[in-house]
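Can't attach files on this board, so I'm pasting raw text. These are the components:
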Amino acid sequence: MPRLLRLTSWPLTVKVPLLVAGLMVAIAVAISQIVLARLARDQETNLRLLSNAYLDGLSAAVLPAVIRSDIWETFDALDRARGRYSGVKVRYAFVELPNETILAASDPDRFPVMKPVPEKLRKEFPKDDGLAIDEASGRAWLTRTLRTEGFSVGRIHAEIDIADLLRVRHQVLLTLLLANGGLALAFALIGYFAVKHMLQPLSVLTRYVERIRDGRLEPIPQRYRRNVASEFGQIFDRFNAMARTLSERETLATQLAEQEKYAMLGRLASGMAHEVNNPLGGMLNAIDTIQAHGNDPAVVQTSLEFLKRGLAGIRNVVRAALVTYKGGSGTVLTPAELDDLPFLVQHETGVRRLRLEWCNRVEAPLAIDGPAVRQVVLNLLLNACAASPVAGAVAVEAAPADGGLRITVSDEGPGLPIELAALLEQPETPAPSRAGKGLGLWTTAHLVRRLGGRVAVERPGTGTRVVVTLPVVPTKETTRDAA
Amino acid sequence: MPAIGRSRPARGSSITRRRLLLGLGAAAALGLARASAAETFSFGLTPVFLDNDIELLSMLERYLTGRLRRPVALIKRRTYQEISALLISGQLDAAWICDDPYVQYRNQLTLLAVPLYHHRPLYQTYIIVNEASRAQDFDDIRGTVHAFSDPDSTSGYLITRWLLALRHTMPAQFFREFFFTYGHRNVIRAVGSGLAESGSIDGYVWDVMRDREPDLVRKTRIVYRSEWLGFPPMVAPNARANEPAVKAFAAALLDASSDPLGRQILDILALDGFTTGTPDMYQSTLDKWRVVKAQV
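---
Top answer:
Structure tokens for the assembled complex are below.
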């Protein structure tokens, strides 16, 4: 369902006034019904009283004439009665004799003397004495039997115009509609502005929460705190407390990442020492060989080549360590910065006879925080190495993708536990309480988040595949202080 | 001519109980009228065409009271018959009656004065129909609902009866329905409203009302005008004709046109004055009455 059609998703500033207006309308409808029903009842009662008074007067006036079947006197009485009874608007009246002919009518053109009552009209009049009301046509019909000494000598029939009564009813209805409609609208408007005013702090809160999403953790200034209801004041205080906590956590995370780097370097150091030491033995042998067989140019050449390779290996290891320790440019990732990394894990792979499948497809510098990326890849790589079985394969692939960088680190280990995978995939997860247990992964996730990237953990049958996607365009807060 | 349906207290310097009763027009007062004749002059009225003209009656009473120097009671009844009966039985000193009752009781009544309408003591009978009617002459109103004024009225009944007698028919056969309204103005109302499709009316009343109430009269149209007949007269019982009060009454009428108040009264009545009439002025009415009487 579209958002607008879902009532629950409507803002309070609309819902509350609508509710108020709705209630007003409901009350108005109920009151109007009562008023109109009462009015209709009173009007009918009045109409009955007035028409009875009219008939009483008219009966007294025409009875002697009707007894004598005196056309003129009957007409004269009917004619004089016309307009004499305020409140009863007689359209016409006539006297019908027992033989069902008209003795006289106030409107003789329509009801000629001594002619039968039109059949169509006869149906409108009540069969017995009384009043028949037809609101649709705005008419009412009266019948009164004229009796003398218990005998009926004729009947008076009259048609009354009740349009005025109905008009009064319509006017009352219109007044009720206008008054209640106006009140409902006024209440809705007042409700709208009142609720809007009451919810003002919420928009302040929303603005500051939005800022968090943009990476800016700012407390709500005191000037907003002063003029709000106590509930909102408490919420503001909580928000500010939360902002402070988050800010502290952020600082802590940065420190943790830094510590993790050094911890990692520490861990690497022994391996690196080994990597430096290994060629050193060979290189000393080479020097011995040169000293012993310095006259043989071929041997010297071979030994020097060996020395050069050994020194180059040592240089690579040391340089990689240095880059990791000092951090790099911070704004650009060069392909070479990634290609250094295998040197740092040579010891881990060597000890466990792991096969490192290194594939770096990055050919040109990318606008990404290089040191941070290095730390991310190194962390994942070390993790993969640790997880892999002896003589297993660890694969790293870095390639430009979708205008960014995608790094895939795969191993053949038993699979990343769910809670650790969650650390990677959901950067909001709090840092692990115990150092060492997933702290590396949490740091990684934290760094990826700082870089505006995402981490996905896949389990392709055997092992784990971690896919890191990083955008090239740097976010506002790049990893200035991450490395 | 129409009678007035309501009565009014006589005006005078002092109101006695008897006069009050007279003024109220209560039936009980009738017997007292004669006894009080010495001081109160009883004048019976039928021919006032506006049955709602209180002002006219007030002026007439004031004028006569002033001229007769005694209280004058204006006696009004619903029908001509009632006034005729009071007059013949000597309970009225004088009366303004229609020419029909005059010819009926011509031997018992003395002519005092005859109104001059358009300077002549004559008037006509009109047969009127509703403006929407297609009738063009008297015979076209056959089968209609007809409004008569009064069974003792010449213009409101006798002439139409005479016309029917000439056709050897009676109202019940000629008309679909007929009724009496006891007032010429009512005949106009009945025909104008459509209650009656045709009506018999005093031409003098119709003409005057055409000016006074044009909206009402406009709804009617004349289809028949009778010959000129003697105007409804002022009469007194023969036995009282020579009494000073009656003579003073006749003189007051004959002098009315020269009196400011009398002039106002004549203006309201649209009359020019009064003249001393002669019985032969009513010969035509008498002839017609005889024709109708012979038919019954």
